Amino acid sequence: MATTEQTAAPAAGQRSHWPAVGAVALGTFLLVTAEQLPIGLLTAVGSAMDVSEGTAGLMVTVPSLVAAVSAPVVPVLVGALDRRLLLLGLMALMTVANVGSALAPGFGVLVASRVLVGVAIGGFWAVASGLAVRLVAPAHVPKATAVIFGGVGAANVFGVPLGTLLGEFTTWRIAFATLSGLALVALLGLLTVLPPLAASQPVRPRLLAAQLRNPGVRVGILATFLLVTGHFSAYTFVSPLLQDLSGIDERYVGPLLLCFGVAGMAGNFAVGALLARGVHRTVLVIALTLTAAMPLWALLGGGAAGGIVLLIVWGLAFGGVSVGLQTWMIKTAPDAVEAASSLWVAVFNLSIGLGALTGGLVVDSLSLQAVLCLGGVCALAAALAILPSRTHPHLR
């Protein structure tokens, strides 16, 4: 008899663990903030540690790469360990790692602490991204997944800007120390409200390999790779796009990026509601919207109004990518949600780095407009990959 992770979800009429969903969302908020906070502190850290800003950028690159590796490796290493204990341990690691960052006497120690952050990010996401099926009734899984992924949007809108501002008004060490304190709060919250989460199906290398033979999972991973790579190839250069292409003054870039983040949060929750009506159709609409939004900015975004409108449309669409594709993975691998999710998290993190790298090469060799077209081409390829899955019984 097959054992599925869906059976761990509360049955209809039983109490759902919504406080636990909120605590996990807080964890994702802090993890994404921790991953991206150094972007706003590069100059300060580089000056204090006497390294170039390019070298200081390792604070961002290293944890992303480590997270990509740890996402499938951590679940395999812990075997049948209760996932509640795993999440608590990883949040404790986040707390300690940020203390290490705040107290680092040199850049080597600082990067080492960021390695630990990467382990926490990858391991936590591998479990948390598919956790909704175990915390709420099946009918509420899309909504709970949207809440968990709402932490990502909140980190971009509030966490990273506020952390950067704190670092500017105090020191970068205070910013990391504060993040450590908040991680401790999240740890206590998880300890209080998270129920026992016995591993119904321990993740083994054989189980990971089996997911790649699942056509639905393969399509979800391919779509993730294309959409995330395409997005970050263009979004990495959103500031010069706004200034050089749309003619927007530099002082308005920050507020517009805040609008992008707010639009992303709105898109996350809107898609969370729409997924209950059809996963395939919703994810396809996301891909097609991105296919249009980025190239249209290259064609019609030569003025401020056009650039701003298309930026907001882009934010709305990409805000639904995480919750949409994670739900896709849940639906296509109901017997191995954690294994499929760990592969998804790994591809997502790798695609962030690959997108930024590819975008830089395109901008240097061609133009800013070309990177928007690249993003659109990647989104179109994702839509074409998604389209044949319309007959999948779990995605209708």
Keywords:
396 residues, mainly alpha, Growth Hormone, Chain: A, 2 domains, 0% strand, disordered N terminus
Shape: globular
Structural class, from secondary structure content?
Answer: mainly alpha
Proportion in helices: over 70%
- CATH top level of the largest domain is Mainly Alpha
Count of spatially separate domains: 2
User: How are helices and strands ordered from N to C?
Assistant: HHHHHHHHHHHHHHHHHH
- In angstroms, what is the radius of gyration? 20 Å
Looking at CATH, which topology of the largest domain would you report? Growth Hormone, Chain: A
Largest sheet: none
Topology of this structure?
Elements: H1 18-36, H2 42-49, H3 53-56, H4 58-78, H5 83-103, H6 107-128, H7 132-135, H8 141-169, H9 172-193, H10 205-211, H11 215-235, H12 238-245, H13 253-274, H14 279-300, H15 304-319, H16 321-332, H17 337-365, H18 368-386
Describe this structure in words.
Helix content is 77%, strand content 0%. With 396 residues, it is mainly α. It folds into two domains: 17-193, Growth Hormone, Chain: A; 205-391, MFS general substrate transporter like domains (Growth Hormone, Chain: A), CATH 1.20.1250.20. Helix 14 (279-300) runs antiparallel to helix 18 and helix 17 packs antiparallel against helix 18. The longest helix has 29 residues, at 141-169. The chain is globular. The model is unreliable at 1-8 (pLDDT under 50).
